Amino acid sequence: xxxxxxxxxxxxxxxxxxxxxxxxxxxxxxxxxxxxxxxxxxxxxxxxxxxxxxxxxxxxxxxxxxxxxxxxxxxxxxxxxxxxxxxxxxxxxxxxxxxxxxxxxxxxxxxxxxxxxxxxxxxxxxxxxxxxxxxxxxxxxxxxxxxxxxxxxxxxxxxxxxxxxxxxxxxxxxxxxxxxxxxxxxxxxxxxxxxxxxxxxxxxxxxxxxxxxxxxxxxxxxxxxxxxxxxxxxxxxxxxxxxxxxxxxxxxxxxxxxxxxxxxxxxxxxxxxxxxxxxxxxxxxxxxxxxxxxxxxxxxxxxxxxxxxxxxxxxxxxxxxxxxxxxxxxxxxxxxxxxxxxxxxxxxxxxxxxxxxxxxxxxxxxxxxxxxxxxxxxxxxxxxxxxxxxxxxxxxxxxxxxxxxxxxxxxxxxxxxxxxxxxxxxxxxxxxxxxxxxxxxxxxxxxxxxxxxxxxxxxxxxxxxxxxxxxxxxxxxxxxxxxxxxxxxxxxxxxxxxxxxxxxxxxxxxxxxxxxxxxxxxxxxx
Amino acid sequence: xxxxxxxxxxxxxxxxxxxxxxxxxxxxxxxxxxxxxxxxxxxxxxxxxxxxxxxxxxxxxxxxxxxxxxxxxxxxxxxxxxxxxxxxxxxxxxxxxxxxxxxxxxxxxxxxxxxxxxxxxxxxxxxxxxxxxxxxxxxxxxxxxxxxxxxxxxxxxxxxxxxx
Lengths: 526, 164
Hints:
The structure holds 2 protein chains of 2 kinds.
Chain A: E1 3-7, H1 10-13, H2 17-26, E2 30-34, E3 46-49, E4 57-59, E5 79-82, H3 87-90, H4 108-113, H5 118-125, H6 128-138, H7 150-159, E6 163-164, E7 174-175, E8 177-182, H8 191-198, H9 200-214, E9 218-223, H10 228-244, E10 259-264, H11 274-281, E11 305-309, H12 310-322, H13 324-328, E12 331-332, E13 335-336, E14 338-345, E15 351-356, H14 361-368, E16 378-383, E17 390-392, H15 402-407, E18 416-421, H16 426-440, H17 446-464, H18 469-485, H19 489-493, H20 495-504, H21 511-521
Parallel strand pairs in A: 1-2, 8-9, 8-11, 9-10, 14-18
Antiparallel strand pairs in A: 1-3, 3-4, 4-5, 6-7, 12-13, 14-15, 16-17, 16-18
Helix pairs in contact in A: 5-9, 5-12, 6-7, 6-9, 8-9, 8-10, 9-12, 16-17, 16-20, 17-18
Chain B: H1 8-24, H2 29-40, H3 47-55, H4 59-68, E1 82-84, H5 88-91, H6 95-108, H7 110-116, E2 134-136, E3 139-141, H8 146-162
Antiparallel strand pairs in B: 1-2, 2-3
Helix pairs in contact in B: 1-2, 1-3, 2-3, 3-4, 6-7
């Protein structure tokens, strides 16, 4: 029987997917709601197969108004052919995203029939120590930005004894926690959101594997309030996972007891920093904690805590199911496995690209993304979120990997690339980086709290001056203080976008000087 | 404006709402503030004292949390909330120009301004390949323009009227 697939991912909904699904249902068609394939410029991307698991063909940018009389036809202009043969998908190597866009995210049977729970099953057959060994061998590193080796973090937590919550009596219940950081606040990143909306059981399975490995009994997902659709899907998935015995007492008939709750953020960017996240999870102001103690030793409510990004945890089920060796065979240097890249901003073909580390930014942006959406020349690419460096158009041959980017003074961050065309004024972007830090600084340390305010002022001074050298020197000094003196990445990395803009695009900072020189020469600007 | 938490009964209502949270959850202060906001649409005057009592912490502690998070509001929200993304990926596709144009549209149309109030921008809605993005109530809008925002506001108004 013919089945239609329409995404329920928030990005697809934002361009009318719900109306498309309703229109197909009104025609009497059977519709399954899935996540998004991640080919976002094609959304709503509607697919059809002869059966639930049949080969799917697709249509791009379907509008509900086109479906008033009949379902899309193979002769239509927007017909794409077999979806998995589209170049954008065919070149990918999906581990984390293996089921996203294919299954109904909240149907446990669909999850099972597409390889779900194989990783947890295998993990439960292994000792906790062997699971950690597998994760270590895979070379998996934290996908939130810091890139810390996951196996080592888990090993540290595994070595700690569970303890009562700080402040509770010594004979109170003892815990260890798995905390998933789903506070995906970086502009240009949406891979956590799409995974949670497209394959939430994968995240829960990964958390259960982590719990078995380190001996944790409780899990928390810190999910940002800006993602209402993800909150709804994850909540439904947790209920269903409990019903199936995938969470709770004796998971899959083992002796592992583990349950997960969601806590929703409240609009603070810095709560994506792990210690600020712990403060927020404990119900307090989301200010950064000094380390040590490491959260692995004294984390949430004072207990040993694994804190991992969504993509880190979601990598684990397929690593266990397919083998650490196969994962470690991908990538380069100490960047092993796959990374979920996100093409965003002014890009013709924006979306999710999961491939092995080492692909160049140029290949991602021009090969897959096909350049800017506006058709104008590319000017800059911000890699790794609001705290990431701006790369110029001639600096895109760099391989996308932790070490190679660090060597260029940039960072991978959460894998987002924001593309800008030549309409961008880089001095405005540098100023925005400081403004953002003013807005979102937690206020705990002075270089960040005050430095960002001074940063905005100095950039304004620099732009207004016809002799900007003094202001520029002051700005560089200030950036040095922020980099060296801040407690966390918020203040410590804000100078990255500022200085990269200043170094790579100096002409954008000489507006006043140009204007004044033009005035002397009698040039008129509109 | 009259706070809805003045009388003993009103305080009891809030206590009934948050006491189960404080009993069940460790570190409940933020959860209680969020629950109060979900119930009233904002955190009314008087709620901080009740939450402090139920959670057995000082009012200063609760106020500190309340004032830290930009989601938590002191005043009732507009009938329809319109939040434009102000972050980099949307800036790259004309987000700043859209914000300016939307401001002008609201300034020119009293009904629109009354319905939507003056909402703060939001930094990233996770729709970075289909920007500019906006959130109208809980509905995410991609490829946003003044026209699509206006129709989303209209749809939200109709939905609100239908539910009355």
